[in-house]
Amino acid sequence: MGFRCGIVGLPNVGKSTLFNALTKTASAQAANFPFCTIEPNIGDVAVPDPRLDALADIAGSAQRVPARLSFVDIAGLVRGASKGEGLGNQFLGNIREVDAIAHVLRCFEDGDVTHVEGRVDPLADADVVDTELMLSDLEALEKRDSNLRKKATTKDKDAIAELELVDLALAELQAGRPARWVDIPKGRERDFKNLQLITAKPVIYVCNVEEDSAAGGNSLSARVVEKAAAEGAQTVIISARIEEELAQLDEGERLEYLDTLGLTEPGLNRLIRQGYDLLELITYFTAGPKEARAWTIRRGTPALQAAGIIHTDFERGFIRAETIGYEDYTGLNGEQGARDAGRLRQEGKDYVVQDGDIMLFRFNV
Q1: What is the rounded average pLDDT of the residues 257-281?
Q2: What is the rounded average pLDDT for all residues in the chain?
Q3: Are the C-beta atoms of 12 and 104 separated by less than 8 Å?
Q4: Among 241, 235, 244, 243, which Cα is nearest to 216's?
Q5: pLDDT band for position 313 (50/70/90)?
């Protein structure tokens, strides 16, 4: 599995430009007017991971299949979206379907690019979006709260349990804080997620800066970094214009261009790593003569469920997982070397898969 990350923000902050660059397509129209993105554009991108190439070289794999993730370019939100202003209802519906939010903030001055509110202030922009999302969640919870309280009076255990979580979320939202700030009771994480609150989704603030500030940011992005730190959130500094140019270059030209800018890698790589960390995702691998492939799972996933990511038959008929750590595989020159050195382990269905594991599932159906 990968993850589905929604690119959101006010109109004209660089969302579609970033989307085009990340997915190397021109499917999202990047124009200098509000609502140029009306339907959410979805683009799958490969997850860059040098470990995959190393494994493929050792295994002599004919193909290399990276993990993939989806970016969703969502229509620009405006003040009043929670009441249906602009494309508010559509925006809010689309954003509920993503796993994480990449909140793009304009951190550059450019008189040729119109700002929907006539000023450049990333913190004010963030406040507009956060407020509209919180108002939407607040309205949804208040409707649910009323029904749950009626059921709770009849001693309905499910209603009482859900009401506890609703009250916790309402307390944060009514205090002007997003639902992701809720201190969720231990063991109730899945139940809380089922409330489907927009502001409970993890957020990465993407600071879209001018080209000259791509390496270290600027005074505007510094304010966003400070805000994120106070919230326990993450930030990534990207120049959407640079990413757009990089998408048009071949590998050699890309590296040379990055070097002239004082960068070591494209912003996409940084954004993916932040996203993986945010959602506690890890990668395990399968490697053989036909292909080397990367698979994405959540941290803490047992071998049985990891097998099911490849095919349901692997999970249904699971026998064992032959497992080699990445360092052992590369250091001992592959499966046979690891086997000879006693570093190939026979793991059962409850084994918790580790990042970088190379696995071969034995099954019988």
Answers
A1: 84
A2: 86
A3: no
A4: 235
A5: very high
pLDDT in tens, 16-70: 888 888 777 434 434 444 434 445 578 888 888 899 999 999 999 999 999 888 8
Exposed/middle/buried for residue 293 (C-beta within 10 Å: 0-12, 13-18, 19+):
buried
Cβ-in-10-Å burial (0-12, 13-18, 19+) of 13 comes to buried
Q: How far apart are CA 224 and CA 235, in angstroms?
A: 8
**Residues sharing a CB contact under 8 Å with residue 15, sequence separation 6 or more, in sequence order:** 7, 8, 9, 37, 73, 74, 76, 104
Q: Which of 146, 133, 213, 234 is nearest to 176 (CA)?
A: 133
The Cβ of residue 166 has, within 10 Å, a number of other Cβ atoms equal to 20
Q: How far apart are CA 122 and CA 137, in angstroms?
A: 23
Mean pLDDT of 85-94: 58
Assess whether pLDDT exceeds 90 at residue 336.
yes
The answer to whether 299 and 282 are in contact (CB under 8 A) is: yes
